[in-house]
Amino acid sequence: MLVADPRAAAAWRRFRQDLADSGPERRREMLRRRANQSRTTDLQMIGRAGLGHVGGDLSVLDILTTLFFAVLRVDPERPDWADRDRFVLSKGHTAGALYATLAAAGFFSAQELDTFAGPHSALNGHPNRVKVPGVETNTGPLGHGLPVSVGMAVAGRLAASNRHVYVVLGDGELQEGSNWEAAMTAGHRRLANLTAVVDRNRLQQGARTEETSALDPLDAKWRSFGWDVIEVDGHDHLALLAAFTAPRGERPTCVIANTIKGRGVSFMEDRVEWHHKVPTPEQITDAMAELAR
Amino acid sequence: MSTMVAETFDCRVAFAEELLALARADERIVAVCNDSVGSSNLVAFAKEFPDRLINVGIAEQDMVGVGAGLALSGYVPFVCGAAPFLTGRALEQIKADVAYSQSPVVLCGMSPGMAYGELGPTHHSIEDLSWLRAIAGLGIVVPADPAETRAAVRWAASAATPVFLRIGRFKVPAVTDSFSFGTATLLRDGSDVTVVAAGTMVSRALAAADEALADGVSVRVLNMSTIAPLDEDVIRRAMRETRGIVTAEEATTTGGLGAAVAAVVVAERAPVPMRMLGVHREFAPTGSTAFLLEHFGLAASDIRAAVVDLARADA
Asked: DSSP string spanning B109-130?
């Protein structure tokens, strides 16, 4: 198991305090910069490892950054704190984005990122809770995160805790039937302490979701399963923040975050081939220049 | 040879009583099921602890995932469903959410083997031991009778490790008085041939041992209630002290108890001959559980014949 990086954790705490003390425009800029730093880190990890899921990493990073740097009640130095909010990355193939975010928050040292996908690294191609603090359950096969999160939300209710469970789902992943079993359970049990965030980038590995097995009307699907639905621009940090922290009713909440796969790197955006293609060193240089703006 | 007909028991009753008793003493214990409140014998549990019985409906993947989420949040979930659907439908959840995630879920495969007799192969769970034995870190326990079922449930509640319990429905006589995870129990000592049995086969192995005395064969009977991790030492001892091993299981022989024992036997410098009783990659014809056990050569007389065959072939 990796251990916390106290200096990074302290910086994360200062960031959160600063963010809380700031007005909306500064908040937006702080989160935008933070997310783009993680995008840069992620591209470097993928370049070094020669593998990764760059497109989905880039689409989900504004969601992850907003959650970890503005929303989640967690403590990187006490990852097993019983009443922490729970975060589950169901789309486990975007582990690179999660690792970059967790390291930036101080859950472990950023030096570990250099080992990504290397022999015996704690940072496997999909996240492992036994090795990486901040990871709550091992994901990778799609359609697993939501049922486990429903169990965590049931547990929170049984324990009379006010902790909240956030789970990030890919949109293509919603073709797995297990999600809808769990959506039905959460709706039936009115698990208001559960928020599912759909990274709606409209691309799956080989094609567009709507050309493969259409998901639309996605909001109506979730509503019909007993969920409240909030639809936002998944790259608008303030809109994400508002959706994640809006007062909850009596139903679970689905945040449909409309995103762009490959977000932030012009030649990758909305292009299906960048699902898990590895950029060349020159492409990484170009991408980092774009992200530094 | 005994002529008395022993009283027999449905192990689900012992399971349910023990679970309820544990739940009264430990509020971390919860039950998760797939509409199987009745078939998993959870009616009394539901009545006494309605909030702690999470019935997700007919949704096994969800059921196992929910169990993992509860376990990872400090609860002790007993996830109950008919064995064929729990293991077959949710195999990937068992692998990823339970075993690989090291979430201490107690998976309870109800009515396993061919307990659903006439309902046919869709409802039989003879593949479960082969499937689950391939998964790292998952304990597999097949209790032989009500006493062992109770002891296994008690152990599982505090084990803090992923485990699968096979909870029998087909009635069996009482044959055990102890359970220790990972350790086989010697039920009858003998010097010629060893029978390694689990679950419904244990009482039949004991009957076969009685009957084989008439053939002049001394039979050792081991109750191998923990299929994984296997008690390898007891197998090696049987190899040294007897001349052959018969395994008996209400499961396919492709990867269950027999295969596990064989893997130990063939690794030794001086292997002993074996006979593996079970189902050999076949779907069952129509018939009751009792009929099917006879059909597949799992009666006491079949075990006796295998024992005698081994003893004589080696003599």
From this structure: EES-BTTTGGG-TTT-BSSHHH
Of A139, A154, A188, the CB nearest to B70: A154
Identify the CATH number of the domain defined by range B8-173: 3.40.50.970
**Closest among A227, A105, A88 to A156, alpha carbons compared:** A88
Sequence letter at residue A181: E
Distances (CA, A) of A35 to A59, A63, B232, B274: 11, 9, 53, 63
Say whether B66 and A184 touch across the interface (CB within 8 A). Answer: no
CA distance A43 to A57: 9
A–B CB contacts, 8 A cutoff, strictly below: 106
Domain A6-291, what architecture? 3-Layer(aba) Sandwich (3.40)
Comparing CA positions, the residue from A237, A236, A230 lying closest to residue A195 is A230
With CB atoms and an 8 Å threshold, state whether B62 touches A154.
no
Q: Is 90 exceeded by the pLDDT of residue B315?
A: no
pLDDT at B6: 85
pLDDT in tens, A168-217: 999 999 999 999 999 999 999 999 999 999 999 999 999 999 999 999 99
**pLDDT class for B1, splitting at 50, 70, 90?**
very low
What is the pTM for the complete model shown?
Answer: 0.97
